[in-house]
Each structure stands twice: as structure tokens, then as C-alpha cells.
Amino acid sequence: MQSNGAVRLPAVALLLLGAPLAACFRPAIDDGAFACGSAGCPPGTLCDRTGVCRADGPDSGENVVLAAARNDNATELHALCDGEVRLVNRLNFAQDGQTLSWGDSNLDGVPSLAVATTGDVLRVLDLRGDVVDETQRIPAVQTARCASWHDADGDGDLDLGVADRTHSIKVFDFDDGQLSPQWDTDEMIQPWGLAWGDVDGDGAADLVVGGSGDAVAVYHNAGASFERGWVSPRAEDTRAVALADVDGDGDLDLAVGSRAVPVRIYTNDKGQFRETWTAIEIADASGLDFGDVDGDGDPDLAVAGRNEPSRVYRNDGGVFAPIWAAPEPRDSFSVSWFDVDGDGDLDLTVGNSAATSRVYRNDAGVLSDWIDLGLDGARDLEWARWPAPAGSVSACDAAAWEASPLAE
Ligand SMILES: [Ca+2]
Ligand SMILES: [Ca+2]
Ligand SMILES: [Ca+2]
Ligand SMILES: [Ca+2]
């Protein structure tokens, strides 16, 4: 496939991005930095303006970049710079952004961004050195609502699962530097949310897909294809699914977020799921993400609420209790756990449609309003972090990133 354009970016050395866990979003706890305490920072570190001790000062050469799929014909890259967020590139695809996913598809240290818009293509952009390069354009995707990287075939590279609202679930196999169609099915009416995870414990990653007017379905990985297994007892207007071991018994359990009904938790019993909890506070969920907000080792749950506050539920043995609500009801489409400030805990980013999206900072398990991202119309948001070598230009040098918008 041809590249259709390239953008000059700072020369950076790129670190392998964390392999995706499940659903459309994934947390990454990585750099082991310490929050600045009253005693200051450990020797050899500095407390930067965001209140984080960093090994090599506030300009550590780290790129922390948020990709945002927006419903105004743009997908944007924003860099975190000294506690502020700057627009560093606007990728004009002439269609509304729908979903995106960071992943290092071939494990070469170059982060890849899969982007789906309301148009009929899915694009893969590589941030290779100082160039943003469109390495692939997949025409077989029409209205993708969720795209998620995962090593589906266990060969070490990341493959891509896509929930395409126009009837189709697709898996693309990464091979020889390209994604190729591996499997698809039209068994669901309007697939919307998709999550990867080994739900049957056979070592291969399975798919869980929820959609509009459909039961949630598990598709078991059978090598070259996926076979439909458990389906939920209800057909709801499902928007998001997520997998995590909520009860600590070693298997992956399922969260389902839908319109006009509560969020449901289904716990896993040998690949079959049983409803064990519902969130009565949320009536209209559009996004879900599991992340350990309180650092006790179990996955807690963030829920994006539509025209109601987004919420966080703390997990206690598979039973969830509400511990946080966004200050105002918003039309929220996505929630994403990521250690934005690099202090070792997961901060929460909430993508809003009719209001600016926000980052809530985690301090000892308590979330507080931190950054106004200055962008509305957010359908999907996802952060990535990778280091730049000494002497390279940081992503925070927005002028360098904005020099050459991606060619249409
Ligand atoms: Ca693979
Ligand atoms: Ca479990
Ligand atoms: Ca927890
Ligand atoms: Ca943090």
C-alpha cells in the first residue's frame, strides 16, 4: 500500500508501546516516577511543574501524546507539555473521526495509530522517527466504531480487530508489514464495542463484541477463524464492552455499557458468563475502561455517561461501589485510564462531545479536575508515551509538528 503523505516530526527514539489489554483503551503504568512529596524528590531527580519527580528533569525527552478522534472532520494529536496540552498536529481526513488505537504493530519501537473515520477506510499511521507516515489504508472498513490492536494469532505482532457498525466484525492479521483481512462475520446487526481477551483460558485471545439491538457475543479464537460462543441473555443498545478479572479468580470477566439500561458486570465461569452486578447510578453508558485507580491490585471501572456524570466505581471482590462522579453531566463518549503525569498511577481522561474534554488527575486514589483539553466533539481519545533521545526535538515543539499537515 502506498503512503499518501508524511509530516516531519522531531527525531525520536521510540519505545514499544504497551500491548493492548482489552477494549478500545488501555492503561500503561511504566516509568516508575515518584510523586513529589513534602520531602521533595529523591536524589538525581527534579520536581517538575506538574508535581512529578523525573529522572532527568522536566525536559526528559519524553513524548506524551494524546490522539483524539473528533466529529469535526479531524483527528488530532496533542502533546502534554509542562502540565498543559498543545495541539501538535491536525490530521484532516475530511471525515469525522470515530475510533482510534495506539499500538506497535510490528514491535519495532515505532508506534502505530489506527484511525477509523466515518469514511470507508481505516488508516494506519506510523510515527517513524521524525515522520508521521500513513503506511496503510484499508478500504474494507465502512463505519468502524471500535478498533483495537492485539496479538490475535500469538506470533508476536499486533493484529487489529474492528467493530464495523455496518454489520461486520473484522480481524486483520499483521504480516510482512501490512494488515491483511483474516476473518469477518456479519452475524451482528450493528457491532459497536469490541474487546480482546482470552476468556476461555486456552491461551488464545478471543473477541467479545456488543452492538446495537444485539446480544453481546463471545467469539472464540479457533486459529484461522473465530467461533461464536456465549451470547448475553439480553439484546440491548450496547456501546462498549471491556474485559478484566474483576473477582480475582484468574479469568476475564465482562463489563457491558449500553444506552438506556444500567452497566452490567458478567463474571466468567469456564467461558460462560453470568450477570453478577449492575450500576444503578448510570443509565446511559457510551464508554468503559478498566483501570486500578486506587492501586490495590484489582481493576476498577470508569464509565462515560451520556448527559449524566461520568463515574468511577471501585472494585471490592467483584462488587463495585461508586467513588467518583464528574462534576457536571456531560455528553461523554469515551473514558481512558493512562498515567498522564507519569507518577505511577492512572489518571482519567474523559472525552466529551458538546463540552471540552478533561483529564482528572489521580492523587492517592482521589481524582481531581486537572487539565481542560480544549477540545470538544471527542469520540475517542487515547494517550501514548515514548521517550526521545537526548538532543532531539520534543513533541512539545509544536511548530515542528505543525510544519507540514498530513496530505489528504
Ligand atoms: Ca499477530
Ligand atoms: Ca474472573
Ligand atoms: Ca483497584
Ligand atoms: Ca498519574
Structure characteristics:
single chain, 408 residues, mainly beta, six-stranded antiparallel sheet, 1 helix, globular, disordered N terminus, binds calcium ion
Mind explaining what this structure looks like?
It is a single chain. By secondary structure, the chain is an all-beta fold. 1% of the residues lie in helices and 55% in strands. It is built from one helix and 30 strands. Mean pLDDT is 83; it is low at 1-34 and 55-59. One calcium ion binds next to loops.
Distance between the termini: 15 Å
Strand content: over 45%
Task: Give the helix proportion (percent range).
Answer: under 10%
Bound molecules: calcium ion
